[in-house]
Amino acid sequence: MNTHDILNAIMAVDQALVAHEAEIESLDRAIGDGDHYINISRGSQVAVAMRDELAALSPDAALQKLAMKLLSTIGGASGPLVASFFMGMAKSIKEHNSNLADVAAAFAAGVEAIRARGKADLGEKTMLDVLIPVSRRFSELTAAGAEPRLIYTELKQVAEQGMLSTRDLVATKGRAAFLGERAIGHIDAGAKSSQVMVSAVCDLALQA
Amino acid sequence: MKKFINKVDDVLVESLSGFAMAHQDIVQLHLDPHFVVRANKASNKVALISGGGSGHEPLHAGFVGYGMLDAACPGHVFTSPSPDQMLAAAEAVDAGKGVLFIVKNYAGDVMNFEMAAEMLSVPNATVLTSDDVAVENSTWTTGRRGVAGTVIVEKVVGSLAETGADLAACKALGDKVNQRTGSMGVALTSCTVPAAGRATFDIGDNELEMGVGIHGEPGRRREAMRPADAIVADLVAAILHDLKPAAGAEVLLMVNGFAATPLMELYLLYHSAEKLLKAQGLIVSRSLVGNYTTALDMAGASITLCLLDDEIKQHWDSPVHTAGLRKGC
Q: What domain range is A83 assigned to?
């Protein structure tokens, strides 16, 4: 993974979020407070605008710079979580010459940083219900030496399953937690946006 | 959506700028990052900083001034401010005795203030407010929400800080007031976030949302509209169930409007609540009625009770001079 790959992923994520605006917003209005899309898209727009600035940097410096910028522009709950993800990735990636297993390790470090900051875990009806299974499967598949095309295709499925799994969960973290059992039957908006982003990056890799 | 707006993206900065112009004797506004400080920086005291999503005005910037906050960090509408705001505010108002953050208990606010606290080099502490009794504190939640009782915490701790008390004493009093304060709200209509452009939730003409949060988050249940006395009885019962005051206890009764309910109705609610509390043998010796912790254009109100003691009374009664609350000076 080089800085060019990161910039391409940012573009793909931004376009995918725009394409799923209505869906993410309606999920958040049902059990959140309706601002998730606004915040996350503000972040992706800022990231896109930073392309030239980031292009000259090493991958870890680019990720760290992106993290600090997103922390100050997204705000809300998404800001610290997204920033922690990129800070976690930045710390991991600089210790490796990144082959696909290193990218999986960096992704896992990012997801772990989200888990620590949000004090949340699998099964709490959050973005982690997508990110943790994707991260685990990513590490398993790269460790097993799977073909990249197979990895990306499978990760898209894992993300989809994780997103759908939040429908039947009671939320115990985030604003939907205040709803108790009333949140059952609704997919979590953060899980949806995470699935959209994971899927967009996998599609990008599959096109390459 | 029908609102006074030029451009949706400019709502926050234009509103903050107007606030700063109108109250230039009390506050000063900094932009990029956004924070509001006192017009005259205080010295030799713990610096009190609060903040949170906008849309709850006058909370928090309206409580910057003598006797309350030293700085406030406004986020986007219903969205936590970010650590760069808190760090810039802390740098501006630190007077050598440390910084106390007063934070309403929401996941976003907690994480952003936590990151700021980790990055801040001066001694600091945090008081988390969690007065909303509508949703129980349990494994279901990240804890109770901080709502209108935050105003009481800011007033009382603000007064103590003016005396030169240290950081630990200010935090201890903040935690005590929070523990002795309970609130619950009811919505008659939804609010509309300007950037979203439509109502946050649907509610019928003959319905109310009991236990609503200050962002329009659902509360305990949706009910049919009832007479005010019956609504107040439910709110007060829920708060008393939580606070469990001793017989003859002295309380502060606050009736807070969510912005679109007229004062006429807020006083009607106050009348109902005070009668009820007296009938239950409580002494209502302090009061506050008005729009102090609002929810954009929501119609509705919350009731807050704070169990008083001599220390809290002393600091509630002391002079305060802010845009949103002024007495004794």
A: 3-207
